Amino acid sequence: MNFDERVTSHDPLRAMLAAEGLGLTDVQIQASEIGMIACTYPACSTATDLGAGCVAAVLGRPRWPDADLRERAETEGHAAAALVAWRKSGNDMLQAMRGNFALVLIDTRQRCALLAIDRTGIERLCFARVGGALVFSTSARAVARHPLTAAAVNPQALYEYLYCHMVPSPDTAFSGVEKLLPAECATFTGSTPAKRSFYWQLAYDAGGGANDAMLRQRFLDLTEQAVARQYDARQPTGAFLSGGTDSSTVSGMLGKVAGVPAKTFSIGFEAEGFDELEYARLTARHFGTETNEYYVTADDLIEAMPLIAAAYDEPFGNASAAPTYFCAKMARERGIEVVLAGDGGDEFFGGNERYAKQGVFEHYHRVPLPLRRLLEPMVMNFPLGQSILPVRKAQSYVRQARIPLPDRMETYNFLHRNPLQEIFEPEFLVSVDTGRPLQLAREAYFRCASPEMVERMMHLDHKITLADNDLRKVTRMCEAAGVEVRFPLLDDDLVEFSGHLTPRQKVDKGRLRVLFKDALRGFLPDATITKSKHGFGLPFGIWLEDHAPLKALTDDAIDSLGRRGIVKPDYLALLRREHASGHASYYGVMIWVLVELELWLRANS
């Protein structure tokens, strides 16, 4: 056996582990693959136990609540602790791991291998089974390019990308290559197929006698603890600050933990309706942070768009990756090695607007079925209904309410605006399962341990929106900029605490993150708590109207994509016409997604 002891930015592609006697002809780990861009990634801890025939590799920053395992990790490394836990508990060892990690463990005596990632999906693991061989990596592209795999781009994944603007797990962009979901492990024995299972699920046990005041204080204590766990005084540390509740909370807590005002990094846009720097400045003044700001321009996108396509191992269409990159780059240029991000608060404490919106539609299902059967024909067939605003709104409400969750959340999907036959080339369309994205969403929605609608939606967002979109956006762009990112609001204790809250302590009568925000009153500025949710948008569609170099890059990519036999040129032309006809911001979203697909295909075909 041999293993490169450490993964560094100097050699991000090669950290390989070969095991014999497992019944697997070749087992390899490639711990990080970021393409040709510079990156920083946490060291990969490795350990072997020759007597027991075991070897382990652990990537990330795991935490060991067990005192003995914690001491072993501190003295010999996380992989050594993993081997001790494995010998004691087998697969149950995963119950003893917290924090963010990707784990590979091979036991040659038992002729098995175990792959696993952390509970919230901060880290990744991808794998492919080729005959008796197993190839695995943090990168789907690395697995696909391995000589044993040689996997081609999967048309099914391209459809899922255009539907979801990323490729949802367990699928990847490459045929035969899979990736793990949060809190999932895969066990391999001999040449049998992988046995996938979830080793942890958020429990929902609200109540327990704690009143709101106690819960609010517990939340504050856990949040401070979470930030403290991610802070290391030996590493220059800062925080992303958008001006929203999450990033403001993390920035304020960082200053409290460090004992000095935090260094914060914020992005602005010179475009009406997109710039939130005033909210970031409000938080910065409140906590006295050392502020750093950067205004992203249309010229910056000329650099960012091909960089994004090269950096991601799968096509990735979230345009806010661009400002994230420039924010992380600014932090690195200011000497920061670690940046704290606020992702995760929405998905575990009820912060997404759709949680409240979908609750309005759910009221419809509380109407007795006989009454609904009487009212629906009256509303939907009302004479001249389209010309009477209240009736038209009622018809729209009924049409949406009749669609069950989670499908209803996709009623505004771009691919539902036109018949698929008008969007895709016939040969491409017959080669894909167009129902696959909704199938994956339903699986995550109904696998939730809670029967409550809002908690099922949050579980879906945890497994797909957060893990495959938001975290990938931030981690990949921080790697590209050369800075490590950590997520305090995904601390395991804080996540488990969210399960002790009632649904109404998360979303109540249209109010989002009820207990979360109540707990922060007096800590955050009132204006930060009461501001409407904005997000980290990008005025790409607006800039595209009159920025010639950006338009030239876009037109070239769109024209090239139209020749690939995926999307019909007529549909691409329709999008450009709609964009030019006064809907620049709306149609700019899909144009960005299509441009990034073409740039990614150029880099990966």
Strand order of the biggest β-sheet: 2-3-4-5-9-10
- Major sheet summary line: 6 strands, antiparallel
Oligomer kind: single chain
**What is the end-to-end distance?**
33 Å
Explain the overall architecture.
The strands form 4 sheets. The chain has a 6-stranded antiparallel beta sheet. The chain has a 5-stranded parallel beta sheet with strand order 13-12-11-14-15, with helices on both faces. Strands 1-7-6-8 form a 4-stranded mixed beta sheet. It is built from 24 helices and 17 strands. It is an alpha/beta fold and 605 residues long. The longest helix is centred in the C-terminal third of the chain and has 29 residues, at 453-481.
What are the salient characteristics of this protein?
605 residues; alpha/beta; Glutamine Phosphoribosylpyrophosphate, subunit 1, domain 1; Rossmann fold; 4 domains; five-stranded parallel beta sheet; 17 strands; globular; disordered N terminus
